[in-house]
Amino acid sequence: MRRTVIACETIEGELQRLLPPGVELRVLDRGLHQTPRRLTESIQREIDSANADEVLLGYGLCGGGIAGLRASNCRLVVPRVDDCISILLGSAERYREEFQREPGTYWLSEGWIENARDPYREYQRSREKYGEETARWLAAEMMRGYRRLALIDTGVCPVDRLRGYAREFAAFFRLEYVEMVGSDALLRSLLFFRETAPGLVVVVEPGGTVSADSFLPALATING
Question: Tell me: the pLDDT tens digits for 205-222?
Fold first, then answer.
């Protein structure tokens, strides 16, 4: 069976460690999340151009950006989660537990630190353009409601390489700093779902369309 993985660059490292031989990996820019329509269109183009019997998506529902995707001439398999934080933690259930413990959590991982334009980087960038006072105000507005920063150690690189930036980020915004060990359980379910619990993924047969309802009730508690 020909298989292709289409994923966000924030989880590229985690996927590379698990990718079976002969499976193609296509990586898309994290910035596409800023416009769900562009995210949907970009992923659809990759699905339509993939020479595969099965396309595995390294995305969650992602603000609705995955809803409406068509399984053109292949089967689609998608993790039954809201976004990549659940993927990195290993399950929607674990994310739900952490959300209930502290909903005001800002998450970082190797992929997020390397690829995302987070509020701390935006502060550094806007300070040069607008000055210190305005840059601090803009950054504070972006981080309003956050009380904790959690660094996820997924094992892709030594956490010591990430800890300095994460601690600096937390200190600047006066956030509680914690570290959590990630899990590859959900990615294994995506790549090898026939051998694991099928309820962890959404499967759309050729000709079908991804429905947001397929992700419930897994996300009901988080979003409700």
Answer: 999 999 999 887 555 544
Both tokens of 198, joined, read: 């099928």
Pairing of strands 75-79, 201-204: antiparallel
Give the alpha-carbon dihedral of 93, 95, 97, 102, to 10 degrees: -170
In single-letter form, the type of residue at position 150 comes to A
CB 187 within 8 A of CB 16: no
| Ramachandran bin of 174, using left for φ above 0, alpha for ψ from -120 to 50, beta for the remaining angles | left
Whether 175 and 163 have beta carbons less than 8 Å apart is answered as no
pLDDT tens readout for residues 141-150: 999 999 999 9
Domains of the chain: 3-85+184-223 (3.40.50), 92-181 (no CATH)
133 with 111: CB under 8 angstroms? Answer: no
Angle ∠(82,117,220) on CA atoms, nearest 5? 15
pTM for the full predicted model: 0.89
